[in-house]
Amino acid sequence: MQNFNIGIYSHNAEIPEGFDIYFNYLKEVTGEINDPVENSHNIISCFADNETANQNPGLVSFSGKNRALRTEDNTLYCDWICRSHTAYRTKLFDLIEKTDKYNIAGFHLDSISMPGVDYCVCNQCIAKMKKSGLNFNKFRTNETTNIVKQISEITRKQLSLTLYPDPFYQERYGIDIDTLSQFVDFFLIPLYDISYQSLYWIDILAHAFEKRLKKAFYIMLYAQDVDLENLKKASRLISKYTNKIIISYDNTKAYEIYKMLKKY
Ligand SMILES: [Zn+2]
């Protein structure tokens, strides 16, 4: 596959030479907000926000059994805020509006959907769902679409969104890919592993996403502490399905992948 487009995904504001596209955190899952990174796609952890969850436990999403806190749901990597809280949503929109004035490449929306398949059934969500007359999944996908649509009206810069690595049942997390495709420029799909020793599942998922998506997409691979040869094998494998690849959290390894795929 020709014309590779290779990028990095990073917590740091640095933009090293030599990549095609850059993603850097503007708002972290910790809740911390960094300065805007010029020429980069600024990542916003939308509803994963440990600090807000800690300070305002009443805003946390609820599954019916537990709250969306790492201490109560061990499948979570961070704590999640319920999307029905208008003041929190407004703060996100304000952050985007303020950052939009900078010379940035775009916004990347992370954790915009649901923390899991059972969320959220807090009192506010149940009341909103009843009022809407929609069923659980339809209500949740509509909420995601409305939020992304509103953001697309705040900024004219490029807009992208993380998909769960599930090509078949995105609605389980409150995502309607086809409708969202109207409002975003591309998707990012993390196929993360901590070793990439076994690759058959990457092959299956990358192939399925290529068949499923009509919109542009990047596949992301996780590089921190991963053996470089394994990462190269994984990159070669997904390059059968996409020429757009992001290497996360290790810029040195990312550059090795860049050189390999671009044949420098
Ligand atoms: Zn809720």
CATH architecture: Alpha-Beta Barrel
Principal-axis shape: globular
- Tell me the number of strands: 8
Distance between the termini: 15 Å
Structural class: alpha/beta
Could you tell me the strand content as a percent range? Answer: 15-25%
- Spatial ordering of strands, largest sheet: 1-2-3-4-5-6-7-8
Task: Return the CATH class.
Answer: Alpha Beta
Please give the share of residues in helix. 25-40%
CATH superfamily: Glycosidases
Low-confidence stretches: none
Number of domains: 1
Q: What would you report as the Rg, rounded to the nearest angstrom?
A: 18 Å
Give the bound compounds.
zinc ion
Order of helices and strands: EEEHHEHHEHEHEHEH
Would you kindly provide a written description of the structure presented here, covering whatever features stand out?
It is a single chain. The chain is α/β, with parallel strands linked by helices and 264 residues long. It has one domain: Glycosidases (TIM Barrel, Alpha-Beta Barrel). 34% of the residues lie in helices and 17% in strands. An 8-stranded parallel barrel has the order 1-2-3-4-5-6-7-8. The longest helix has 19 residues. The mean pLDDT is 96.
